[in-house]
Amino acid sequence: MPEVSVIMNCLNCEKFLSEAIDSVYDQNYQDWEIIFWDNASTDNSADIAKSYDNRLRYFRGEHTIPLGYARNMALEKATGTYVAFLDCDDLWLPEKLEKQIELFKKNPEVALVYSNCYVIDMSGNIMKTSFETSEPARGQAFNELFLRNNFIPLLTVVIRKTVLDKVGKFEPLYKISEEYDIFLKITHSHLIDYVDSPLAKYRVHSANFSINLNIGIKEELEILDKWLSKDPSLSRQFGNKIRLKKLKRLAVLCNFYLVKYLHLPKKLAKFY
Fold this sequence. Notes:
The chain has about 270 residues and is of the alpha/beta class. The chain is about 40% helix and about 20% strand. The protein contains 10 helices and 9 strands.
């Protein structure tokens, strides 16, 4: 069996799909399979995916379903010791899996390894790196992840399959924040590590930004409340910090819509 199962969830991704798949085939580390879950695409994504060899295992859903649910469907097909994720408009650098699997081999207690990544525009131009705006954390990282915004880019993540089996699946109804939810479950009882150098490229889609921001913040607040209900000690330990985080997330949302709909200059709208 391949050691790494690469989960690729696709919904009408023909524009960047070949480039994304090729970045897996170009890995220095070659002991992998791709679990390709087609979420009922209506473009040429299926034909592109099926043009590759049998290391890409193609599956298709009958109807479009939420992303968290689709990720779970793909995970059920995974056979690897480790699981990685690559959305179909993002890219990996050739050394990604090689460097991350090396960390797993060095420390059997590590459950998840992530990395820095480049943020690119629609044309592939590098805009920044993810760690420029968010400090990484390793080891016992639950508190930092809970109190801060999600600093783990999903496209950089590799997770032990046994850990995913233990903590449970993605929340099937989440559309944006299913990854933040699963990372909290993992870090609550397991160690994580990271590679400081960029090992992937995350593509920003400005057209969907407002929709994703709105949904993502609502889901994130729901996740926080779920953990507070599950573990009351978090409120006692971090009450003021949690309230501050919620206020900041709502302020980000308000700021965005002040700029978008009232056409206020960003400097004036940035009231928090």
